[in-house]
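User: Predict the structure for this protein chain, please.
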Amino acid sequence: MNKIVVGFDFSTGSANAVDLTIDIANKWRSDIRLVYVKSEGEDEGPVREEIERRNAGVAHLLKDIKLEYCIREGKVAEQLAAQALEDDALMVVVGTNGMSGFETNWIGKNTYRTITDSPVPVLSIREGFDFHKALETIVVPLDSTTETRQKVPFAARMAKTFGSTIHLLGLYTSESKDIRGLVDGYVDQVEKYLDKYDVKHVTEHLEVKKNLTVKTLEYADSVNADLIVIMTEQEKALTSWLIGNYAQQMLHLSKHPILSIRPEEISQSR
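Assistant: Here is the predicted structure, written as structure tokens:
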């Protein structure tokens, strides 16, 4: 049975991540591996006692799945990625104000490094998000890059799991007919894919005049999105006025959960 790995550090954000992971794991019939990354020389005894106490408190929520934990030492992102590989994990879940080193106003290096290091998709949840709300609306932005469609199978799986509606967002970042044609073609292919697997969806096309990230988030806000699914590599055009690439910007600015998928991992998707 494939596991879902969840990062934990006793923060409210990481506790919320555990709760959401339990909900997903119950639906997928996947076991959960809670991972605590300790600092060098940190005493494991109190950590184990507190984790076991907390795990016992949520045991009644588990439906024929197991919640296990491990304590690792080293860099947070590297250790989560290593555990994901060892467990042949389906996904890694992190709370964006959890994990040591996170900052209040900037998501910090650990979330982004986890996304870039992880061999599997990473779901990041900002502290304060109402994760008790049904996952009704999933936004899937599509641009003119070849990789943009590779996020769709995992997004479709999430939508089928929760009965969500996928909002396909065709993003025009150029006046070029060729580039706009690529976007239209990719949107059409994805619509047919979702129809084939009976995934509810709607489609919107937007002109991007300034920033791809901002435009995506404005749309996500307008539909009260519960999840945005992105690739870790996206079009770089029109993003220069914000520091960092598309994934970094999304993590920094989004109040919505972000599911990040690396292009090279798609061939291994289940």
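The two ends are 12 Å apart (CA to CA).
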